[in-house]
Design a protein that fits this description.
The protein is of the alpha+beta class. The chain has two helices and five strands. The chain has a single domain, classed as HIT-like (HIT family, subunit A, 2-Layer Sandwich), CATH 3.30.428. Strands 1-2-3-5-4 form a five-stranded antiparallel β-sheet. The protein binds guanosine-5'-monophosphate and zinc ion. The site of guanosine-5'-monophosphate has 13 residues, from β2.
Length: 114
């Protein structure tokens, strides 16, 4: 059984506030939000980070971005703007070793360090 917390959320073993789900992706609220709106967009396939992806993941990577757009529109933050962040590896601050997009919005983020 996987010890990865995002795999556990993706397969329903761990609770989260789910905003969107399909066969490939799940989007849920970050447990420690850094903005009024902070959702994590996560592939169900366990990929450690971008370094762990390849050509075979091209459609999945595009899908993650389109789901980010959809979740932002549904949350009504799309018009005001939002920020997408992908931390990749230890010097980026990546803490959870399962690829995820941060979708941040709901306040002025122009000066936010990424
Ligand atoms: P990273 O630093 O790896 O890019 O971001 C990991 C994110 O996952 C952090 O923003 C953190 O608050 C969030 N996180 C960590 N554990 C959990 C959890 O158990 N549930 C949820 N919903 N978010 C989590
Ligand atoms: Zn995982």
């Amino acid at each position: 059984m996987s010890k990865c917390i995002f795999c556990k959320i993706a397969n329903g073993q761990m609770p989260a506030h789910i905003r969107y789900e399909d066969d490939e992706v799940v989007a849920f609220d970050d447990i420690n939000p850094k903005a009024p709106f902070h959702v994590l967009i996560v592939p169900k396939k366990h990929l450690k980070n971008l370094n762990d992806t390849a050509k075979i993941d091209q459609d999945l990577l595009g899908h993650l971005l389109l789901i980010a757009q959809k979740v932002a529109e549904e949350a009504k933050i799309a018009d005001n703007g939002y920020k997408i962040v992908i931390n990749n590896g230890k010097e980026s601050g990546q803490l959870v070793d399962h690829l995820h997009l941060h979708l941040l919005g709901g306040k002025l983020l122009a000066r936010m360090a990424v």
